[in-house]
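Hi support team,

I've been running sequence recovery on a batch of backbones for a student project. Most finish fine, but this one hangs at about 90% for roughly twenty minutes before it completes. I'm not sure whether the input is malformed or the queue is just slow. I've pasted the structure tokens below so you can try to reproduce it. Let me know if you need the job ID as well.

Thanks,
M.K.
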């Protein structure tokens, strides 16, 4: 008889992605404890829960408490550290590196090895560079496409539009199209500039805008769930 599975949670600001260790399919729900527990009802009861979260300490404490009360099992929270699973953190204060970036680097190194450039194209776009020996050289953080567009509305008096068109880097013929094309162009050009600086490194891209950016010319390999990939490796190393 097989033992109960370990549940992996990638908690973002608005969405939770989850799967069990050993699985490849991913489930999604809104980042609320009640919604997550409801989403998990059809699934087998886990033996342990491991999570990576960027939602903030107050939210994490509430979520962990709700999960512990509902399942009566241990909940483990991944943290960024100075060195783990072959990756050395570039930060002088390693705990201040976003745990999603840390898990994505661990996942990328596990999937393709190093050297590797790791791109996460979500609400923000993060780019991390990991050398051949697993040394994290450092990284870049820039606003995601939607954040760029929203900032233009918030910080200007006359840039207004009703809705953004489909992703494009072609010149726009209306304000919304101009804003969107400018944001996509800035995002894609920034990523490609870093990738071009490291021609011997493989580049992996993950995140909600990954496919759109690749369609617009970003040179990288798609790996849709790098954070969960890294979290699974971390979980197996910690709790088996």
């Amino acid at each position: 008889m097989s033992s109960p599975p370990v549940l992996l949670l990638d908690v973002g600001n608005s969405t939770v992605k989850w799967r069990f260790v050993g699985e490849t399919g991913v489930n999604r729900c809104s980042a609320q404890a009640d919604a997550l527990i409801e989403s998990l009802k059809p699934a087998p009861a886990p033996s342990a829960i491991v999570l990576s979260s960027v939602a903030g300490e107050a939210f994490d404490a509430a979520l962990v408490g709700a999960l512990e009360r509902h399942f009566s099992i241990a909940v483990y929270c991944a943290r960024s550290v100075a060195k783990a699973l072959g990756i050395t953190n570039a930060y002088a204060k390693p705990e201040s590196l976003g745990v999603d970036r840390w898990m994505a680097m661990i996942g990328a190194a596990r999937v393709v090895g190093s050297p590797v450039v790791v791109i996460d194209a979500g609400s923000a776009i993060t780019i991390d560079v990991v050398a051949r020996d697993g040394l994290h050289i450092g990284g870049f953080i820039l606003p995601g496409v939607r954040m760029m567009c929203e900032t233009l509305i918030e910080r200007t008096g006359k840039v207004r539009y009703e809705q953004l068109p489909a992703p494009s880097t072609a010149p726009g013929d209306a304000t919304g199209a101009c804003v969107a094309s400018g944001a996509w162009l800035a995002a894609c050009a920034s990523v490609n500039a870093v990738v071009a600086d490291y021609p011997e490194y493989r580049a992996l891209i993950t995140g909600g805008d990954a496919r759109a950016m690749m369609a617009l010319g970003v040179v990288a390999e798609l790996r849709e769930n790098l954070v969960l990939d890294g979290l699974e490796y971390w979980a197996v190393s910690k709790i088996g």
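--
Follow-up from support: It reproduced on our side and the slowdown came from queue contention, not your input. The radius of gyration is 19 Å. No action needed from you.
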